[in-house]
Design a protein that fits this description.
The complex is a heterotrimer. Chain A has 11 helices and 2 strands. By secondary structure, chain A is mostly helical. Chain A has one domain. A two-stranded antiparallel sheet of chain A has the order 1-2. The radius of gyration of chain A is 19 Å and the shape is globular. Chain A starts with a helix and ends in a 9-residue tail after the last helix. Chain B is of the alpha/beta class. Chain B contains 9 helices and 10 strands. In chain B, helix 3 crosses helix 4, helix 3 runs parallel beside helix 5 and helix 4 packs across helix 5. By secondary structure, chain C is mostly helical. Chain C is 73% helix and 2% strand. Chain C is built from 14 helices and 2 strands, in the order H-H-H-H-H-H-E-E-H-H-H-H-H-H-H-H. Classes of the chains: A mainly alpha, B alpha/beta, C mainly alpha. Chains in contact: A-C, B-C.
Amino acid sequence: MNLYLIQVLNGLGIGMIYFLIAVGLSVIFGIMNFVNFAHGAFYLLGAYLCYAIAAATDSFWLALAVGPLAIGALAWAAETRFLCRLYRVEHMYQILVTLGLALVIQELVVLIWGPIGTHVSAPALFRGVLSYGDFAYPKYRLFVIGFSAVLALTLWLLLERTRYGAILRAGTESTEMVSLLGIDIFRLFSLTFALGAYLAGLAGVLAAPIRGAEPFMGPEALTIAFVVVVIGGMGSFAGALAGGLLVGVVQSVMSSLWSEGANVMIYVAMALVILLRPRGLFGRT
Amino acid sequence: MSAEPRTALAVEGLTKRFGGFAALKHVSFAVREHSIHSLIGPNGAGKTTLFNCLTGALKPSAGRVVFAGRDITHLPPHRRARIGMGRSFQVTNLFQNLTVFESLRLAAQAQTGLAALDFVRPKELLRRAVANAEVVLDRLGLGPYRNTKAGELSHGRQRLLEVGLALAVGPSLLLLDEPTAGMGVEDIGAMKELIATLARDYTIVLIEHNMRVVLDISDMITVMHLGEVLVEGRSDAVRRDDRVKAAYLGSEG
Amino acid sequence: MFGRLLPAPAMLASIAAVVVLPLILPSVAMATEVVVFIIATLGCNLLLGYVGLLSFGQAISFGVGAYACGLALIHLHIGVWGGLFAALICSIIAGLVVGALSIQKRGIYFVMLTFAFSQMFYFIAYAMAEVTGGDNGLLNVPRPPLTVFGVTLLSLGTPLSMYCLAAIVFLVLFVFLHRLVASPFGSTLIAIRENEERAIAVGYNTRIFKIIAFVISSWVTGMAGALYALFLNFAPLSNIDVSMSERIIIMTIVGGTNSLFGSVLGATFYVVVGNLLASVWPRWLLVLGIILIVVAGYLRGGLWSGVEWTWQRLRARWPVAGAVEQREDRGGA
C-alpha cells in the first residue's frame, strides 16, 4: 500500500513537471501553429543553470528565480531574430530549424559542463524526508508538488483574469481575429514563445534535484511533452495539466508493475487519442 | 429515340442539420439532361450546403441524391468524379505549381482506373489521359498556356482552368460553384459563352451570384431561401416573382 | 520499353556516383555506410518530397529491416537473398500497418501519429530482448557469400564486395524510384502533395495512393536497414530509435526534397561530414545544428538546389550548343 502511495506521489510530482513543459509547447503550437523541437533544450538548460547557479552561489532559490528568466530571454532573442521568419513556412522547416537550435544548445551544454551528467542537491530547506509514522517521503518532492500547484494556479489566473491571458486565449482560437483587433501579433508571439521557454526552464530547475542534470535529457522531455500535449489537447491549459498528471501517475505506477509495458502503453494511448479523439481531453475541435 | 428529356440529377427531400440548426430543409428538385440549372438565393440560403451534399463533401441528415438513376447519397467524393460528376470550386483550388496541361492530364488520368497505379511507364505514355487533356485544353482555348504554372495564370484563366479540371474528368454532369467569381467583365462574357456551349454536351448545375449570367443562360432556376426551395421556374418567371424579390431585399435590409 | 531504363544523364550520374564514392572517400566502409543511408533517404524523400508527408516512421522500417535480415540470417540460415527477402516482407507489413493507421489523419496529427508508432516500436524492440538483443542489439549477424544456384557472385568477405552489394541494391532501387516518380502513379502522388482536396475532387482515392506510397517508402528504407545489418554484422537498438528517423529526415531536407538526387547529396553530406568532423571535434553536432538553421532559413531547396543554381549559372556563362538538358522536374508537363 505504501509503495503505491509513494508511486502516486512520485507520479504527481513528475506529472506537474510534465505539465510545466507541456503547457508551453501546447500554447506555442495552439497560437502560433509552430512546431517547436527546441522545447526540450529549454528544459535541459533549466537543469544545468540550476546546477551552475546553485554551485556558484550555493542558492537553489537564486537558480529558481533567475535561471528560467535567462532562458526566457534567450528564447525571446531566438524568436525575434530568426524563428519568426518561419511561421508561414511548412512544418518540416520549423522542425528542422528547432532541431538545429536544440542541437546547438545541447552541444554548448556539453562544451561548457562536459558530457557526463551531474547530481544536483535539493535546497537545504527541503533536504531529507518527511515522516508520518511508518511512511516517509522526500521533502523536496512534496515541495515540487506544492510549488507547481501554486504555479499552475498563478498561470490559470494569468490566463483567466488578465488582459494578456484573454488575448492568449483568443489567440488559440484565431490569431487573425486578434490581429484584426489591433493587437501586435508579433509581440504576442514573442511573448508567448518566451513564456513557454520560461516554463520549460522552470521545469528543468525543479527537476534537477530529482533527476540530476544530464546533457541528453532534452529529447526525452520533448517526447513526453508531445504525448502530454496530444492527450491533453493542443492549445489547452487544462489539457496540459490533466494530461501531465495522468501521464506522470500512470507512468510512475506502471513502472513498478510492468516497466517495459509502461512506455509502450503511453505511446499506444497517444496513438489511440489521435485516431479516436484528436482534440484530446480538453482541446478544441 | 425517346423525345422525353431524362432527369440527370434528382434531389429528394434533402435535409442537413448542424446540431440544432437546419441548413437544408426537405429540398427537392430535378435537373433535366443537357440543361443549365441554376441555384440562386441570398447568403445563408443553403446553396453551399446543398452543393456540398451534391459533391459528397457533406453527408445529408436525411433525403437522397440520385444521379443517372443511382442513389449516390453516401458515395464518397472521389467516386462521384468517377461516375461522371465533375465539379469546380468557388475559391480557386488548383495545382498551383503544376502546368495547365499537367493539371488537365491528371484530372483525365484519374478516370483511367488501374492505369493510374502504373509505376513503371512514363506518364506521357498514358495516351488516353494525354488525349483527353488536349481536347479540354483546346476547348478552353488555353493552348498558348499549356506550359504555364496554374499559379501564374491570370485570375480569369484560372477560373477557366477550374472549369477545365471538371471537364477533364469526362463527366456527364458539371457542378460549377460560382464560376465567374472575381472575374472582370470581359472574362465573364467568355465564361458565359463557354457554359452555354457546354450545355450541348453536358448537364450543368450552377451556383451563381451574378444575376445577369443566371437569367441569361439558365434553362431552369431554383431559388433557395433559409434552407428551403422558395421558387422554381424559368428565367422570366423567377425574375418577376415577388417572393424572390422579397427574399433578396429582405435579407439585405 | 525496357530498352532504356532511365534517361541517359540520370543513369550516368547515378552510376558515376556509385563508382566514384569509394574512390574519393577515406575508406570503402564509409562509402558503404553512405550508400546505405542514401537508400534510406530515398525512402524518406518519396514520402516527404513527392507526397508531402512528413513521417517519423523511417526508424521503424530501418530497424525492422535490420532485425528481419539479421534474424533470418542467424536463425533460418538462409543466404543473403533470404535476409533481404525477410527484410522486404517485414518492412512492407510494418509499413502497411503503420501507414494504414497513420493516413487516417492529416497534417500535424499524421506527424505525431508516426512519432507515436516510432516510439512504440522502439520500446517493443527494447522489451523483446530475447529476440532483438534489447539494449545490446542483435549481435553476430553473419555475412554469407551472395550465391545464385550455388555459384558465388560476391564473397561479401571484403569491404569492397560488401560495397558492391550495397551499390547494386542502390542502383536497382534508384532506377525503380526514378521511373516511379515519372509514372502515372508518381504524378498522382505529386498531385496529392500539391492539392489533395483537388486530387480527390477529380476522382483519385488519395487514401489508397498514400498508403501505397507509405508501403513503398517503408520497403526501400527496410532494404537499407537490411544492408546496414549485413555491413555491421550487428543490428543495434539505435536503428529503431526515433533519433534515427530524425537523422534520416535531416539528410532528406538538407539534401533537397525537389529531386531524388538530393537524397544522394544529403546522405553523403551527413555521413561524410559527420564521420570526418566527429573524428576531429566530438562536438561536430554543433556545426550540424547551425547548418540546419541555415538550410531551413535560407536554402530550403537543400544542397541539390544549390547544385542546380550553380549549374544554371555555369550554363549561362558558357552555353554549350546542343547540350542535352537533364532537368529533374517535380511537376512540369
